[in-house]
Amino acid sequence: MRKTVTGIALAxxxxxxxxxxxxxxxxxxxxxxxxxxxxxxSASPKGATAEKGKHEVxxxxxxxxxxxxxxxxxxxxxxxxxxxWTLTETVELTAAEQRVGYLVTAVPGxxxxxxxxxxxxxxxxxxxxxxxxxxDGGKNPKGCKFTIKG
Length: 150
What we know:
Layout: H1 2-19, H2 30-35, E1 40-43, E2 54-72, E3 76-92, H3 95-100, E4 102-108, E5 110-112, E6 118-120, E7 123-127, E8 130-134, E9 144-148
Parallel strand pairs: 1-9
Antiparallel strand pairs: 2-3, 2-4, 2-7, 4-9, 5-6, 7-8
């Protein structure tokens, strides 16, 4: 029974990722989506010099080898990446997103730590050049997330 429930949950999660569950329905063309960019905090980075509503987002995953990375910035994906991995995109927030926020995430898979144990690869999110979230060098298994406002 437990295996069946787990299998159904995994299948549902995969279907949501593949169908873009939670997207805006594709109202923006792919060219403008390519111009946007992908610790649990929420705010505008202080000292940001970007235009209002426009932010440069950098997702970083450290380590060596290859690992699966699930991410969301402007685009999103769940792909095997060679480490270290970096993605930089420019996010342009709508007026509503400036008020309620826009979530960016990076959730890396596991790597082998120096002591031989498995742990999540370290990740960092930077907004307008300022580090706004990390996963404590891979010690926090929740990955990295940050809500941009303003």
